[in-house]
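Quick illustration, no need to memorize.
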Amino acid sequence: MTLIDVFVVFLILNAVAIAAITDEDSRSTTFRGVSLPSVIDAKDLYQAAYQDIQEEYHSKLQGEDNEWKILNNRQGVEVSLLQHPADPTCPYVKMTAIMPASPQECWDFLQLDQWETTMPLMDPFYEGVDTYGDYFFEGMNMTVARKRTKRILGILGKRDFVFVSVGHKGENEVFMSGTISVVTKSIPRQRDYTRAFQDSIAFYRPHDKNQTHLTIICRLDLNDSHGDGGYMPMWLYVKTIGTTASRSILNLRRELQRLSETKM
């Protein structure tokens, strides 16, 4: 898991405050998410739903020609944006910060099996998560899951996200986790939920003693991943993501600080 799940709530709250009428032309009609067969196996997940996305996102972090635009830089949290060359309505967003916990502690706090405890601390509209199988391939732990959110203030409808949650402990104590949106007939759409889109990769690198340099790169669209509604104008997402993403990282840092203090 990454913090995409935490700042979704702040994005929606800003949307309610700023815009009551959707600009139809600003909603994406691009079909998003990695297609998987009805019968899923570990190799499919690794190759189709992780390897290509990880390589794509890593290249955006490392490429010299990438022109990241800084949207917000306060209290040690930097948020920046990079246009997607083929899908400009859904850009890449990068967040960096120092966390007051070790990479292992950050990793443990954000693991999927901890969501029922950790997510309500940061997202009051979190409804729950369902898992559909655990897989392992080439040293990678993978779980297929569906996250659900509640209605927001009675205005915006429920969302759900079907994704592969991945985790890997790499060399030099660098941890990696991510969520990659997938489309599969084995997890059909549910009535009253908009099937939204999220891809994200996070890197946890050791900093000073018991600290972590956290980097997250993600893409998010709260509209339907196949272009069928959602009523969230993407211009609003771009306008507010600098503030909403920064708030989410600050909330995570606060919770990790509380956890550290309870251990003292």
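The first helix runs from residue 4 to 18.
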